[in-house]
């Protein structure tokens, strides 16, 4: 539903905000009732006579007369500054393409945006203008148009052939946060569903508890950020390429877990706690174990080739028969290893 502000022709006070519906005749009837006049004509802010209600945009300021010609309200000595800003038309030259709009459109809906700061007060930012007086903005016009329309009527509309990712980048550039959120949701919902997407941490734990034969457990590429599996049994499971690293810094904890024969090749396990866990005959080739706690861990016959073990704690671990060739970084084992 659109809404407009109505003023008696030639004035800038005692305006009325009304809902726009039906025909132009309906609008004149509402104007007569609200303004106490016999309304017969409607003008826009530049004096254009409106004869089609579809030409009226949301949040427009209109002037209603009893048949007399347009009288510029800015000639009214009582005209407030905000009113002049609301009706101030300007042209933007965006990447060589010109857009005409009102200052109100640029500042009202997203008052914290870059565009609002640029055009809220005249000439404060020293905006550059071309030879025709249009304000120069060095951005893509195709991506800017949906943003301007959003500021006009609050709806996200993207024409065919326009990549939403480009519009999202512009929304972020101009600091229009609500629009950016809508675009992110649109892009996410338009992506095809992946029937083979990795398990989440909760799904993995539920699956682990429900699977009696762990060698049947296949969770390659699972997202196990910060998972807690103390003393769990995942013997023989396949966890290749899993991610145990949490960007928030929460460390995965698998202390005391039974991981005999587990295949975790290529997994990201920075800072993971595997203290006193059993990894006998496990495959940890090319894993990232930087800063991991492996104190007291049974690593007998474990394949650790290509692993990053920088700053890992291996104190008291059993590395009998373990393979350490092709390690990316040297072990930092200031403590003893049995």
From TrEMBL:
CDD domains: BTB_POZ_KCTD9 (cd18368), KHA (cd17073). One of its GO terms (biological process) is protein homooligomerization. Keywords: Phosphoprotein, Repeat, Ubl conjugation pathway. The keyword Repeat applies. SMART domains: BTB. Residues 3-82 form the KHA domain. Pfam families: BTB_2, KHA, Pentapeptide. Pathway: Protein modification; protein ubiquitination. It comes from the Eukaryota. InterPro entries: 5peptide_repeat (IPR001646), BTB/POZ_dom (IPR000210), KHA_dom (IPR021789), Pentapeptide-BTB/POZ_domain (IPR051082), SKP1/BTB/POZ_sf (IPR011333), T1-type_BTB (IPR003131). Substrate-specific adapter of a BCR (BTB-CUL3-RBX1) E3 ubiquitin-protein ligase complex, which mediates the ubiquitination of target proteins, leading to their degradation by the proteasome. This is BTB/POZ domain-containing protein KCTD9. The gene is LOC110523428.
């Amino acid at each position: 539903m659109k809404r407009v502000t109505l003023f008696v022709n030639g004035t800038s006070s005692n305006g009325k905000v009304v809902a726009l519906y039906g025909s132009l005749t309906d609008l004149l009837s509402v104007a007569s009732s609200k303004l106490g006049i016999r309304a017969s004509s409607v003008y826009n802010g530049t004096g254009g006579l409106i004869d089609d209600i579809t030409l009226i945009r949301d949040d427009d300021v209109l002037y209603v007369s009893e048949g007399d010609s347009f009288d510029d309200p800015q000639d009214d000595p009582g005209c407030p500054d905000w009113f002049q800003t609301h009706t101030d038309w300007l042209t933007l030259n965006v990447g060589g393409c010109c857009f005409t709009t009102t200052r109100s459109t640029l500042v009202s809906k997203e008052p914290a945006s870059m565009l609002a700061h640029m055009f809220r007060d005249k000439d404060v930012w020293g905006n550059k203008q071309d030879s025709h007086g249009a304000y120069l903005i060095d951005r893509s016009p195709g991506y800017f148009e949906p943003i301007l329309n959003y500021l006009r009527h609050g709806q996200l509309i993207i024409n065919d052939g326009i990549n939403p990712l480009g519009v999202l980048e512009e929304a972020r550039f101009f600091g229009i946060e609500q629009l950016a959120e809508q675009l992110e949701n649109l892009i996410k919902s338009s992506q095809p569903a992946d029937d083979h997407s990795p398990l989440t941490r909760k799904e993995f734990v539920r699956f682990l508890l429900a699977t009696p034969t762990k060698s049947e457990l296949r969770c390659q590429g699972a997202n196990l950020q910060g998972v807690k599996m103390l003393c769990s049994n995942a013997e023989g499971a396949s966890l290749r390429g899993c991610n145990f690293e949490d960007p928030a810094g929460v460390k995965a904890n698998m202390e005391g877990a039974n991981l005999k024969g587990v295949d975790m090749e290529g997994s990201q396990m920075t800072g993971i706690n595997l203290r006193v866990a059993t990894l006998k005959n496990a495959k940890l080739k090319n894993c990232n174990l930087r800063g991991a706690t492996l104190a007291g861990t049974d690593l007998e016959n474990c394949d650790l080739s290509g692993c990053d073990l920088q700053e890992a704690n291996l104190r008291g671990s059993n590395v009998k028969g373990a393979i350490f060739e092709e390690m990316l970084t040297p072990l930092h084992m200031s403590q003893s290893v049995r």
